[in-house]
Amino acid sequence: LILIFIGVIFIFTRTKREKPLHSKQDINTFALFSGTQVRSHSRDFKGGSVGALFGGIEIKIPENIQVEIKGYPILGGLENKTRLHRGTDEKLTVLRVNIFIVCGGIEIRD
Q1: CA gap 93, 77 in Å, rounded
Q2: What is d(CA 45, CA 78) in angstroms, rounded to the nearest whole number?
Q3: Contact criterion met (CB below 8 Å) for 19 and 47
Q4: How many other β-carbons are positioned within 10 Å of the β-carbon of residue 57?
Q5: Pairing mode, strands 25-32 and 73-74
Q6: 7 pLDDT exceeds 50?
Q7: CA distances from 7 to 12, 32, 33, 64, 68 (A)
Q8: Under 8 Å CB-to-CB from 17, ≥6 apart: which residues?
Q9: CB burial class (10 A; 0-12, 13-18, 19+) of residue 54?
Q10: Tell me, what's the pLDDT at 21?
Q11: How many CA atoms lie within 13 A of 78 on its CB side?
């Protein structure tokens, strides 16, 4: 009974994660009946997988990063509030994110 109670508290809570400036990283997170906020200051991304099942995820990344998203929300929403960068810029970092959303939401902003 105690383990079930601890699991329910973990599932239904909001979490925050902040990544260090120097790390080469993936953005991988999943929200189940909860909210998750991921904030990164790094410009060195490899990609990531993000999933929300009856929950919400907010991802904040630095400016001048192009975001490419693969996947489709099912009864959910996706907002890409990053600025669109046109042309070819060698310093432009591309973040490729695979999404999975069912009755939840994901927001990506710079």
Answers
A1: 25
A2: 20
A3: no
A4: 25
A5: unpaired
A6: no
A7: 9, 11, 12, 38, 33
A8: 29, 36, 37, 38, 39
A9: middle
A10: 43
A11: 19
Residue with structure tokens 């991988």? Answer: 28
Q: Which two tokens stand for residue 74?
A: 């099912």
Residue 11 in tokens:
């599932």
Nearest by Cα to 76 from 50, 109, 101, 58? 101
The pLDDT, as a whole number, for residue 14 is 65
How far is 50 from 24, CA to CA, in rounded Å? 17
Mean pLDDT calculated for residue range 62-87: 84
Q: Distance between CA 5 and CA 49 in Å, rounded? A: 28
How far is 71 from 43, CA to CA, in rounded Å?
Answer: 23
- Indicate the length of the chain as a whole number: 110
Phi, psi of 3 (to 5 degrees): -65, -35
